[in-house]
């Protein structure tokens, strides 16, 4: 009877947490759906692919990848960072169907990367660089969405690159938007931002998602502005393909051209997509884990398997390459999502909107969606984050700031790459300075210098130890203590032994304490055991 009671209690507790999570996940899925829809369409347009392909990729990213992924908050879909690769691939390969074959192969390659556990590379991204990437995405969102909030930007929604496809850049795009400002769009954006800020404070009605209210208000205001000086232009609305029948819907799907399997260029494109998509996914996953309020750690190898499966299916059905996307994922986190239910539901909403309510969706002004992304950007690039990184010290703050500047003025991967180089420089600098503890004692009139080696002494510490030993004064006693060392690199051991052998020429006495002649690299199991 007691066991039965515990089981019932466990079930009740499980139902409680499920209901509690659904209260957060379902409203969050609406926010992600509203953010994802124009992004899917805009990225497809910029990639030279059918608009349907963008929405289809969002559907697969939400339902398939969302279900298979081990991440609770990451959202997959077509990525702005891949538009150039897709456009070049379609042009080079000569047809969209041949490009789809490259996408199928890329999906298989990602699955292989997951199986060989290549996702562990994410563990080597410096924390300051990931924080910088998040802040940079926030700044980019604010700058890129501002034109949509005040007027119109001919470039696709959600572009992350400084140089845009419409021959503008981030700054000139803002200037161009201000030169053709639409006050109706401004009013809708300001009202939307006010609702996003103040609506959650009304506890009795806070159950209605602020983003949904923003969209409904935006539609109502745009209709009210018709026939006035505040009327919105056609290009200031969402444009989703309208499907009138089942036959028309199924006619939108494309099939990969497997007759081109021997085409060398197909394989080059496939490898490019697989590598770039995997890197963007791992970066986004690491970033999402940083802003997860529960601080869960997502399995990176499982994510590569999920993304590979998603790209494989997308290639078979006629979609675009997908990654875990930081813009959608951060919007998901900021909306309060708790589990992957939000990502999966957003995919279902994309499908429903395409099949049943495309005309209603096309009434949504881009300015109210821009307001949602402006708020997301503000939360990612908040002033308190800069203060927090400053207090961590220059070795954290400088890579953080360099990453922000590099991402804002180039693109995501190049910017993160530059930030990684600076971050690695500071890691090596710290590592080089801390291979040992140096302590000087006195034994009568004679100096006794104790050098206690660190737990891990790698070849990177070779130069620092060499310089220290060379500068030890004559007629000293030197104790090199390796009692705390788990591993000492063979190059360092050679320096120590050579120094001991030649020290008599300077009347220096060298004593080795617990320094072995050979060290094996510690195995992972041993490290885990020691931590426990």
Task: Give a nutshell description of this structure.
By secondary structure, the protein is an alpha/beta fold. 63% of the residues lie in helices and 7% in strands.
Structure overview:
- The chain is an alpha/beta fold.
- The protein has 2 domains: 389 residues, no CATH class; 97 residues, Transcription Regulator spoIIAA (2-Layer Sandwich), CATH 3.30.750.
- 63% of the residues lie in helices and 7% in strands.
- It contains 21 helices and 8 strands.
- The protein has a 4-stranded mixed sheet, covered by helices on one side. Strands 1-2 form a two-stranded antiparallel ribbon. Strands 5-7 form a two-stranded parallel sheet.
- The N terminus and C terminus are likely disordered.
- Pfam families: Sulfate_transp.
- Keywords: Membrane, Transmembrane, Transmembrane helix.
Helix and strand topology:
Blueprint (H helix, E strand, L loop, with lengths): L1 H46 L3 H18 L7 E3 L4 H11 L2 H20 L11 H24 L19 H10 L3 H16 L11 H16 L20 H5 L13 H28 L8 H18 L4 E3 L1 H9 L6 H16 L1 H4 L4 H15 L2 H9 L2 H16 L2 H22 L2 E8 L2 E8 L2 E2 L4 H9 L6 E5 L5 E2 L1 H13 L6 E5 L10 H8 L1
Parallel strand pairs: 4-6, 5-7, 6-8
Antiparallel strand pairs: 1-2, 3-4
- Arithmetic mean pLDDT: 87
Shape: elongated
Oligomer state of the chains in this structure: single chain
> How far apart, in Å, are the first and last alpha carbons?
37 Å
Q: How many individual β-strands?
A: 8
Helix content: 55-70%
**Poorly predicted runs of 5 or more residues:** 1-5, 524-532
Number of discrete helical segments: 21
Number of domains: 2
Q: Gyration radius, to the nearest Å?
A: 28 Å
Structural class: alpha/beta
Largest sheet: 4 strands, mixed
Strand order of the largest sheet: 3-4-6-8
């Amino acid at each position: 009877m007691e066991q039965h009671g515990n089981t019932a209690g466990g079930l009740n507790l499980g139902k409680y947490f499920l209901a509690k999570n659904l209260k957060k996940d379902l409203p969050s899925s609406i926010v992600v759906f509203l953010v994802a829809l124009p992004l899917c369409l805009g990225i497809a347009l910029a990639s030279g692919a059918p608009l349907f392909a963008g929405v289809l990729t969002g559907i697969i990213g939400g339902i398939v990848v969302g279900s298979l992924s081990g991440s609770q908050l990451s959202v997959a879909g077509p990525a702005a960072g891949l538009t150039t690769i897709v456009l070049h691939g379609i042009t080079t390969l000569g047809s969209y169907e041949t490009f789809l074959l490259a996408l199928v192969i890329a999906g298989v390659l990602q699955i292989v990367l997951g199986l060989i556990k290549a996702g562990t590379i994410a563990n080597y991204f410096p924390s300051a660089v990931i924080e910088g990437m998040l802040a940079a995405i926030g700044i980019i969102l604010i700058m890129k969405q501002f034109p949509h909030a005040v007027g119109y930007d001919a470039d696709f929604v959600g572009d992350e690159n400084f140089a845009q496809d419409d021959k503008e850049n981030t700054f000139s795009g803002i200037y161009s938007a201000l030169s053709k400002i639409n006050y109706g769009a401004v009013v809708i954006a300001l009202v939307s931002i006010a609702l996003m800020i103040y609506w959650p404070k009304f506890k009795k009605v806070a159950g209605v998602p602020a983003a949904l209210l923003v969209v409904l208000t935006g539609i109502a205001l745009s209709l009210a502005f018709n026939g006035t000086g505040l009327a919105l232009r056609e290009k200031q609305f969402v444009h989703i393909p309208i499907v009138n029948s089942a036959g028309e819907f199924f006619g939108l799907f494309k099939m990969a051209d497997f007759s081109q399997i021997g085409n060398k260029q197909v394989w080059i494109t496939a490898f490019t997509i697989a590598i770039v998509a995997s890197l963007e996914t791992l970066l986004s996953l690491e970033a999402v884990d940083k802003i997860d309020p529960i601080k869960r750690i997502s399995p990176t190898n499982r994510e590569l398997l999920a993304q590979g499966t998603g790209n494989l299916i997308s290639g078979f059905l006629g979609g675009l390459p997908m990654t875990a996307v930081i813009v959608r994922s951060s919007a998901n986190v900021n909306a309060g999502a708790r589990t992957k239910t939000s990502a999966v539901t957003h995919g279902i909403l994309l499908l429903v909107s395409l099949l049943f309510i495309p005309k209603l969706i096309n009434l949504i002004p881009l300015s109210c969606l821009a307001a949602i992304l402006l708020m997301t950007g503000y939360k990612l690039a908040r002033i308190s984050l800069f203060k927090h990184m400053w207090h961590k010290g220059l070795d954290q703050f400088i890579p953080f700031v360099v990453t922000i500047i590099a991402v804002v003025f180039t693109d995501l991967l190049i910017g993160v790459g530059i930030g990684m180089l600076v971050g690695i420089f500071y890691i090596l600098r710290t590592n080089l300075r801390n291979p040992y503890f140096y302590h000087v004692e006195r034994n009568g009139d004679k100096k006794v210098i104790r050098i206690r080696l660190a737990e891990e002494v790698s070849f990177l510490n070779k130069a620092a130890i060499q310089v220290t030993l060379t500068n030890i004064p004559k007629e000293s006693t030197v104790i090199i203590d390796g009692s705390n060392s788990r591993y000492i690199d063979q190059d360092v051991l050679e320096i120590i032994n050579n120094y001991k052998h030649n020290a008599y020429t300077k009347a220096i006495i060298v004593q080795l304490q617990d320094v072995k002649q050979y060290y094996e690299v510690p195995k992972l199991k041993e490290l885990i055991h020691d931590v426990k």
